[in-house]
Every structure is written in C-alpha cells, then in structure tokens.
Amino acid sequence: MQIALTGTPGTGKSTVASLLPFNVIDINSLVRAGLNVGVDPVRGCLDADMEALAKHLGKEMESPECITILDGHFSHCFADWAIVLRLAPEILRERLAARGYSEEKIEENLEAEALDVILVEAVESCSRVDEIDTTNRSPEEVADLVKRIVGGEIGLPPGQVNWFVDFFGRTSASFKPP
User: Fold this and answer.
1) N or C: which end of the chain has fewer CB within 10 A?
2) Could you give the 3-state DSSP secondary structure of residue 123?
3) What is the mean pLDDT of residues 19-34?
4) Strands 36-39 and 46-48, sheet pairing
5) Among the residues of the chain, which ranges form H helices?
6) CA dihedral over 98, 137, 17, 110, signed as positive or negative
C-alpha cells in the first residue's frame, strides 16, 4: 500500500517521513535522479516526468501489505490515500526564506497553502485524505499522528485547517484598488 505524505513545500514532509517505521520513497530524489522532462524555463526548477514516475512507483509496489510512504508535494498524484501536512503561513514563510526561496516563490507557496491547493488536489485524486496541522507540533508528534492514522487508530479528515484569513487578511489590509 502506498500512502502519500504530501503538502506545500516546507510543511515538514521529509522530516516526518524520516521518523516513520515504513518504507519511504522520496519523490523529489527520483525527479533529480532523472525522472524529469527538463527545467521549467519560467520557474527554474525540474519538471517531473509524471508518466515515468507512475511507472517507476508501480514497480516499487512490493505487496499490498507493505506500507510505503511517498514523500513529496505532489506524491498524492500516485497514491489512493494521502496524508496532507499543513503549516501556518507565518512559520512557512520563515522556513522557505531559510531555504533561500525568492520572495516570489515564497508568496506562491504561501498562497497555495492558504488556498488549500494540495489538499484540494488530494481530495480530488485520492479515495481517503487525512489532514494534520503541523503548527506547534514537533516532528515526533506529527510522525506519531501519521503512525496512528496509518494504524487505523484515528482519522483526521480534511477541513480542520483554514489559513485563508491568516494569509489574505494581512494582504487585504495593504491592498489599494487602482
């Protein structure tokens, strides 16, 4: 069974995945290793070869009993179950800035988080989606929640997190119509 651990970049996916007792496949590593179609000229990042990734991940499937976590912000495209990690925009901004993201890239990711872009995509493509607010939780606490979700102890359905007002409330105050 493949379960996507997904969310906006910076929400803690890779850190949490490294703490899980399951097989983990880092989707971004696969893209960097050659499963891409080149560099996006506008964004300056590698474009994933979604077809090649799907084929590769299909081969990785050992057995339905084996739990494999797909770590990556578009991993929900390859799984029937997604666990979406969410993070308050003000903390996400700090993390992305620490990674050296440009202000434009930071704003793009903050908007995606505030508008639930990854969550909506996961809900549209997966039969089960759980959502975890990682704000004010340690990676160990989040990993424990993931283990409890996968183990069937708890369910955290979508709709618990809303950053819309947090993000757009701050920008609407500075908005001045033409």
Assistant:
1) C
2) helix
3) 93
4) antiparallel
5) 13-17, 27-32, 50-60, 89-98, 103-114, 117-125, 139-150, 164-174
6) negative
Report the C-alpha gap between 120 and 104 in whole angstroms: 22
pLDDT at 168 over 90: no
Is the model's pLDDT at 148 over the cut of 80?
yes
Pair 78, 3: CB distance under 8 Å: no
**Residue spans per domain, the chain:** 2-88+117-160
Per the listing, tokens 């069937």 go with 152
pTM: 0.88
Q: With DSSP H G I counted as helix, E B as strand and the rest as coil, what are the percentages for the chain, rounded to 5?
A: 45, 20, 35
For residue 130, the Cα-to-chain-centroid distance in whole angstroms is: 12
- The fourth-level CATH superfamily of domain 2-88+117-160 is P-loop containing nucleotide triphosphate hydrolases (3.40.50.300)
**127 has a pLDDT exceeding 80:** yes
Residues 22 and 40: their CA atoms lie apart, in Å, by 33
Burial class (CB in 10 A: 0-12, 13-18, 19+), 167: buried
Which residues are paired to 69 by β-bridges? 3, 24
